[in-house]
Amino acid sequence: MISFHEHLMVNPMYIIVFVFIACALGSIVTVWGADSALPANFSASPLEQIEQLYNQVKKEIKDLFKAGEPDGTLPASFSTSPLEPVVFASDFIVQKFSTGLEFPTTMYFVGDDILVLEKFTGKVIRIKDNGAHYNESVLDVPVDACWESGFLGISSISNHVFLYFTESESGFDKIECHDQPVKNKVYRYDWNGEKLINPILIKELPGNLEGHHRHNGGAMTKSQNNEIYFVIGDLSQSGTFQNIPNKIIYETSSIFKVVTESNNSVELYAMGIRNSFGLAVDPVTGYLWDTENSTNNYDEINLVKPGFNSGWKRVMGPVDRDNPDIDGPQTIPPPFENFVYSDPEFSFYHAVGLTAIEFPDKGSFEKYSDWLFVGDYNNGRIYKFQLNSDRTGFVFSNPELSDLVLDDNDEIDEILFAKGFQTVTDIEFHDDAMYVVSISDGSIYKIYEPTQSELANKIVQDTILTLILVGTAIAVTLGVTMGVIRRKRMRS
Asked: How confident is the model at residue 23 (pLDDT cuts 50, 70, 90)?
């Protein structure tokens, strides 16, 4: 009697048709979405359902092949293409604004152009308001870019641009890891409209003290009073600035303030920070906020007032919670100078790799004027948090979030603004739009309110997506049904 696997080899027509329809439909969806803006209210649900069905197709075919293939593997070419990002606000759409960047970390607007930092090349790329690149970079500095080192931060006051990067002492870009100490440096450059010139060293900080190339921080932002803030992580140290009283006093785990109107003097502003990829200043109160990364538990969003102690290595997340990352019970850090500990304004029980943090500008995001936006690296999500009346914390309608921690089983819909970015490393608002940097796919995305013609086009797009969804469902149903019938007939 012929085996099931041999029968598939002799008469594979229904499997071929099954795979072809599913792959073709999935490819149409991917190609259609890759070059067109996807409106949240039209694309999110159909695309997510198509993705689920497409994955189900893969599972059903794998189950069929298990009869003859012990490992149940599929050809490498049979894989699901990633879908485009989606926004869960019905009046916004998202589109890919600029591509072809080499591991972009962060960006800053100068006029209507964007200056983008490339982590490994040490280049500052200038992008036009239509997303096209200028022919030449505006600056190229030698970076030591292993792991979390490299080109990390940018901010600006007037025509002065401040940059934070791990400088390569060889004068050439270096991406190989090594165990030699390096320097993280903050420079000020002059912007002449075409190039960054006249570098002035503002602050020199340690780097790679333990050979791990980790926790260099690098995020920067500016205040309402022409001050520049920048952050450095703990560099894997256990000393005074990590709330472990001893003689180790490396300037790590800290936020510094550059007082530009006082000859660029640098002041220690906050301490006890494990690592951070996000700083932002509230345009209403002038308060500084940060994101902070945990080891495995309790990523944080913090209101950072002068003299703030974030608590690391004594505490991460609310002090009254147990944290497996902390050796022993969590405790409020002992006093150090005038620095005072306070609990985070919000925490994620499981680390999501919080990165960007930003307040919206007016225009199309005016309805979010009392909200704060935060991105994450691990899931490629953007979260939104509604501020309380004095803008020092958050308010939630979901009682599960009232303890100010997103626990494993908590409903996330209230705070989820967008998802589907491969990663999120920076968020900026400009000219009624949100711009999002994704380091892993070398792109900048734009989220904005569409025109009426764009909306009309998306209605057509949604109709086609719905038809594809129906076709995929039919293909799945017919394919699985035919497979079951064939199998029963052969067994009988």
From this structure: low
